[in-house]
Amino acid sequence: MSTPKILVVFYSRNRSTEQLAQAVAEGAMELGAEVRLRRAREVVGPEVMRQAPGWLENATTMNARYEAPTEADAEWADAIVFGTPTRFGSISSELKAYIDGLGGLWFQGKLNGKAGSVFGSTSSRHGGNESTLLSIYPTMAHLGLIIVPTGYADAVMFKAGTPYGATHVSNRDADKPDDDHLAVARFQGRRVTGVARALQGEREAVPA
What we know:
Elements: E1 5-10, H1 16-30, E2 34-39, H2 46-49, H3 55-65, H4 71-76, E3 79-85, H5 93-100, H6 103-108, E4 115-122, H7 129-143, E5 146-147, E6 167-169, H8 179-199
Parallel strand pairs: 1-2, 1-3, 3-4, 4-5, 4-6
Helix pairs in contact: 1-8
């Protein structure tokens, strides 16, 4: 059986979602997956970014660290794991712009049968983590992805995260993900990889 290929594509402004993404990638690699870790790019210019302290500087640093996600990355992957900060209870525009650019692959049926999962973070308690993850579920369904939630399939899920995916509350960027939240993200990476491996032999048999 071939090595599962996992695309972890995220947007992060102040590193909380980035750290969850790194942990998801680590979990996938624990099960032998080949991982591509990509950061979605800004959809506004520097003049807007300068209005939020640290945004431009952090973006510059992270964009030097990660390649931008491409359509080819999504076609390559057996599973796609999306990561986003909460934006008014929903997905960030940066990540959504990348997903919207996958219409060509969707039209050709090339995403059908791949595994899909999502994780995220928010600045404030009750700031919309669960609604944000759930807002991406319909999008994954439209793409033809097989949605892989975390559920309560590991004991660590009773300490942190949600049954929909790994999450974190940064308390206005004062707190970074702790060991429990990172453990949930690593579990999510392992879980998605296991499902992707099981699906590898099935995708070709499912009509587009």
